[in-house]
Specification:
- By secondary structure, the chain is α/β, with parallel strands linked by helices.
- It has helices spanning 22-35, 53-66, 79-85, 121-133, 152-161, 189-195, 222-231, 258-271, 288-296, 308-318, 341-355, 359-362, 381-388, 391-404, 430-448, and strands spanning 11-14, 42-47, 70-76, 93-97, 106-113, 146-148, 175-179, 199-203, 235-239, 246-249, 255-256, 280-283, 301-304, 322-324, 330-332, 371-377, 408-414, 420-427.
- It has 3 domains: 11-150, Alpha-D-Glucose-1,6-Bisphosphate, subunit A, domain 3 (Alpha-D-Glucose-1,6-Bisphosphate, Chain A, domain 3), CATH 3.40.120; 157-362, Alpha-D-Glucose-1,6-Bisphosphate, Chain A, domain 3; 371-448, Alpha-D-phosphohexomutase, C-terminal domain (TATA-Binding Protein).
- The protein is built from 15 helices and 18 strands.
- The protein has a 6-stranded mixed β-sheet with strand order 1-5-4-2-3-6, with helices on both faces. The chain has a 5-stranded mixed β-sheet with strand order 8-7-9-10-11, with helices on both faces. A 4-stranded mixed β-sheet has the order 13-12-14-15, sandwiched between helices.
- β9 (235-239) and β10 (246-249) form a beta hairpin.
- It is globular, with a radius of gyration of 23 Å.
């Protein structure tokens, strides 16, 4: 099985270095053409605003058309917009060229199935195996064509505006600061808010190919917080380069934790008759106070492994309308296939206007319970594995889980991207949380030293 190159969100790396090269992109397209594009023989390609997207788009297009697959080039479009409209494009799959919140010199390729969902590990593994074989027979009588689609954005915006249920200016009187990360939402998000009646202050909305996510967007919010305070805005909103993450602050420039956003949206959906008794999903790193709050709404709460993909999988399994994770991915299951900064911020703004309150009066929605979160860095991933597989560490972690069972939880895991051991302990009893986390941290540090 493959998946040496595919992570949970596609293939990613430095543009013009393996695997983000034109040769790899062509091979990937040809492998997808042979493995996936066997029905309609058509694929859609969208991209964010980084300089290398045109290069990779050309390579992917060449690979698909060489295998007799027609290519629908959509241009710059946020990831959530592409996943939303894919099902109506008449394609076998879609490809999103983006490195999300990474700087401009990185890029990535996300594969999306005909229904707008991410491919499973099994499918990407088979695609990767085909790439590694390196042989792609071609037929001179079967060459695909290239088409351009300018309607995908309109289809997406129709879904977005359906949230307003026909109200023409539902955000009238609201003053919003929007940081677009110089990314795919730069020409979209501010305009939507303006059309819905809000006053908008735009930040980082002039992409030049190099400035995507540079000191702006969801990863760098200092300018957002400052601008909100200085302009006396009601709310600040930042997305990342491809628009699937959202960070929000109140009128005082105070960042709102993602689990508080999830709680607010769940409450708003219940009061609006949209929750309908369905559960809420987040990850094991969400504050344990969220569990109690969601249950107070009379619905079930599920905590998944860390990663938007696992949240979405559980949402589908239990028919959840709202889920998310701490990094800023928030998914509205009735409207989106993935995290969507525009849809989530619109829901949030509608709730804010209808409340007739200030953000600082609405948040926090629930009282956060005590927690300790510690990252311990090792010299290598092998050293991390030795630590987490140590009998001493396993024993102390299991002891802690039993001690806090029913009133909190313990998360102990290796980072998926760095040589780190992540330790998270949270629960109702602050003394117990501190004692258990200190025992685990101390045991890991002794192994490190």
């Amino acid at each position: 099985m493959g998946n040496k190159l595919f992570g949970t969100d596609g293939v990613r790396g430095v543009a013009n270095q393996y695997p983000m090269t034109i040769k790899f992109a062509m091979n990937l397209a040809q492998a997808c053409a042979l493995r996936i594009c066997t029905n309609r023989k058509k694929v859609a390609i969208a991209k964010d605003t980084r300089i290398s997207c045109d290069m990779l788009e050309a390579a992917l297009t060449a690979g698909f058309t060489a295998q007799g697959v027609d290519v629908l080039q959509i241009g710059v479009l946020p990831t959530p917009a592409l996943t939303t409209v894919t099902e109506n494009l008449g394609v076998d799959m879609s490809v999103m060229i983006t490195a999300s919140h990474n700087p401009f010199h990185d890029n990535g390729i996300k594969l999306i199935d005909a229904q707008g969902n991410k491919f499973s590990d099994d499918v990407t593994g088979k695609i990767e195996e085909l790439i590694m074989q390196g042989e792609f027979p071609t037929n001179p009588d079967a060459i695909g064509k290239v088409f351009h689609n300018s309607e995908a954005l309109s289809c997406y915006l129709a879904v977005v505006k359906s949230i307003c249920q026909g109200e023409s200016h539902p955000l009238k009187g609201l003053k919003i600061v929007v940081d677009c990360a110089n990314g795919a939402f730069s020409d979209i998000m501010p305009q939507v808010f303006l059309e819905l009646g809000a006053g908008v202050i735009r930040l980082s909305d002039v992409p030049d190919g190099y400035n995507i996510n540079r000191d702006c967007g969801s990863q760098h919010i200092d300018n957002l917080l400052k601008t909100v305070k200085e302009s006396h805005a009601d709310i600040g909103i930042a997305c990342d380069g491809d628009g699937d993450r959202i960070i929000v602050c109140d009128e005082h420039g105070q960042k709102i934790p993602t689990e508080q956003l999830i709680a607010f949206l769940a409450q708003y959906m219940k009061n609006s008759g949209l929750l309908n008794g369905r559960p809420v999903v987040s990850t094991i790193l969400s504050n344990t106070g969220l569990d109690s709050f969601v249950e107070s709404l009379g619905v079930a709460y599920y905590a998944t492994k860390v990663g938007e993909r696992y949240v979405i999988e559980k949402m589908k399994e239990v028919n959840s309308p709202i889920g998310g994770e701490e990094s800023g991915h928030v998914v509205l299951g009735d409207y989106s296939k993935t995290g969507d900064a525009l849809m989530v911020s619109l829901f949030l703004c509608l709730g804010l206007v209808k409340s007739s309150k200030k953000m600082s009066e609405l948040f926090p929605v629930f009282r956060s319970e005590p927690f300790v979160f510690e990252n311990i860095r090792f010299s290598s991933n092998d050293a991390v594995q030795n630590a987490i597989n140590s009998s001493d560490v396993i024993g102390i972690v299991e002891k802690a889980k039993k001690a806090i069972e029913g009133q909190g939880r313990v998360v102990f895991r290796a980072s998926g991207t760095e040589p780190l051991v992540r330790i998270w302990v949270g629960g109702k009893d602050e003394k117990l949380v501190n004692e258990l986390s200190a025992e685990i941290i101390g045991t890991v540090l002794r192994l490190k030293n």
